[in-house]
Give the backbone structure.
Amino acid sequence: MLSILRRNRTTVGLDIGSGFIKVAVVDHSGAEPELVHVSHTALIADAIVEGEVMDPQIVVETVRSLMDSSGLKPKKLVASVGGRDVMVKKIQMDRMKEADAREVIRWEAEQYVPFDMENVQLDFQILDPLDDGLQMNVLLVAAKRDVVDQKVGLLRDAGLAPGVIDVDSFALHNAFEYNYPEAMEGVAALVNVGHEISTVNVLQDGALVLTRDVPFGSRRLREDLRRMHGLTVDEADAVLQGRSERAREFEELLRGGAEDLAVGVERAVAFLGAGDGVTSPGRVFVCGGGARIPGLVDVVAARLRARTEVATPLQRLRARPGVTSFFAVDELAPMLMLSVGLALRQAA
């Protein structure tokens, strides 16, 4: 069921996060893809914790309610898996044709995959197919089979038929590549600041060479604002989204969280550089629900000494008139990178 790195025709991307569930619908019938629908809803706290579904029934009901209220009845859709049960790693192996590599990839993967190989689904992509060296760089992806099966079962319980189960980091890359083609040269980093976990993607000349999770999310800051300063959920969210004039009161707390994220990104890049000789990114892009945390962009830019900005899946993607009139684009758009990346995948 795991199908990654290959485009599949679909118009519906469903991102089931631990804080929000997001849906994006892209129409591929024209010369350029067009965003025709966006919807999202909050998920009850702790229904999903660190990527693990703790209360399947609540998640199923929330997904079904969002689809019903949006008037969506997709025959097929694209969802994804990620987190600690998915491994993405750049490896080297003897150069060979893709068909031959597919025959031996499981044997090669045994050296790198930290999971039980009997319970793993694999895929890969040759990163330098045109080179003629004796070795080739391969992006290896492994996902625990039960994690994929669980996601498929959850979607079917919600009355949906998943056409593709993708991987979070590749869906993020898909949307990023479409919207920021100029960032496909040199080294760049895309940081998706989620509810509990942030994902760091490092690209070299457009190829994804590293993906790593950083244990930082907006939830921690939200809870600190509530516990330490007595803010309500809405007040804390307003601070984290930069909508509150009180943000300056909590500058130290917000900066501390941003520093934790920046250090995590810095370590991920340093690890890659030590192993592959990749230089530090010249540009860093942040997306996700925590991308607008006041001061975060400046802290990351200073730590990594790189031009840093908030990324949106609507930078280049055309949206049908009226689609974005129902939400605050600046606030919501960075949260849609994953769902749009899923919806951008075309099917045969």
